[in-house]
């Protein structure tokens, strides 16, 4: 396992993570042999079930299991139960979060690839002088769509090329607006609205967008917004992660397609006044 940790630490150095983040090896005995690695966005009971059933000795996750101060991992708690199951099964856990977001290639490169974006550059650059600061690195990517399309077309396209979720994709702005330049940011990109505007892109796709910031952003003339499911924007990275692990080490990988987005139901009433029927 020490070799896997070393390889991951090279591609996603923990020093590149945001200060509030908690990344790297969470659980595990470095001398344990690792033959199979499970790649997941979230460490939840269902993805742990998958990893154990697949015979993985290690899980590499995007989201930290333990982010804030922890004073108990008793099995009577939700996260403590997960910790117990992993330790009893001798399964290690490694997290690459904002250090994988900022990396090149990173989480948003895999998202950008789903749209065939070209001429990629970062949306949010690391703080100058910070450990992650280097050309090409940063959170989110900006690129050109292979074929310009309207916002309505792009929204349907996004729903088709992203992993399927109940949430799907919703968009904000003029449905007829032409989109050539697209910014994408895997996960919660709420904080990068001003940077998307400053970059002069036609649209910005991310997750977890909210009423007031989105409305005020559009009222100020900012790019159109596409709000996808958080899991769906980060799941594409798992394929890149798994391919890298197979190439760098002689290990097998399993990639979880279990949708860990909390939203499970979506309904839309017909709105012929806003959206032309197909
Ligand atoms: Zn995320």
From TrEMBL:
A Pfam family matched in the record: DUF34_NIF3
Keyword tRNA processing: no
Database matches in InterPro entries: DUF34/NIF3, DUF34/NIF3_sf
Metal-binding keyword on record: yes
Protein origin, superkingdom: Bacteria
Key words, A-Z: Metal-binding
Coiled coil (UniProt feature): none
Subunit structure: Homohexamer.
Family: Belongs to the GTP cyclohydrolase I type 2/NIF3 family.
Protein name: GTP cyclohydrolase 1 type 2 homolog
Organism per entry: Micromonospora coerulea
């Amino acid at each position: 396992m020490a070799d896997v940790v070393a390889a991951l630490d090279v591609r996603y150095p923990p020093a590149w993570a945001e200060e509030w983040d908690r990344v790297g090896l969470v659980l595990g005995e470095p001398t344990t042999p690792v033959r199979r690695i499970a790649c997941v966005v979230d460490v939840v009971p269902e993805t742990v079930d998958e990893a154990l059933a697949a015979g993985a000795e290690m899980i590499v996750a995007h989201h930290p299991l333990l982010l804030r101060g922890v004073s108990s991992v008793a099995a009577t708690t939700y996260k403590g139960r997960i910790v117990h199951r992993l330790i009893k099964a001798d399964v290690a856990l490694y997290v690459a979060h904002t250090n994988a977001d900022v990396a090149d290639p990173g989480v948003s490169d895999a998202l950008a690839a789903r749209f065939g974006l070209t001429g990629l550059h970062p949306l949010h650059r690391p703080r100058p002088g910070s450990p992650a600061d280097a050309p090409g690195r940063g959170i989110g990517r900006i690129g050109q769509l292979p074929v310009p399309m309207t916002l309505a077309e792009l929204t349907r396209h996004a729903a088709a090329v992203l992993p399927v979720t109940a949430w799907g994709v919703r968009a904000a702005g003029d449905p007829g607006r032409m989109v050539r330049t697209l910014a994408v940011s895997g996960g919660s990109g709420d904080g990068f609205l001003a940077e998307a505007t400053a970059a002069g892109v036609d649209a910005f796709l991310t997750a977890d967008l909210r009423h007031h910031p989105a409305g005020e952003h559009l009222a100020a003339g900012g790019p159109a917004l596409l709000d996808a499911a958080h899991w769906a924007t980060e799941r594409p990275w798992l394929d890149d992660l798994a391919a890298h692990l197979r190439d760098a080490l002689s290990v097998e990988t399993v990639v979880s397609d279990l949708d860990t987005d909390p939203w499970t139901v979506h309904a839309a009433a017909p709105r012929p006044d806003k959206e032309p029927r197909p």
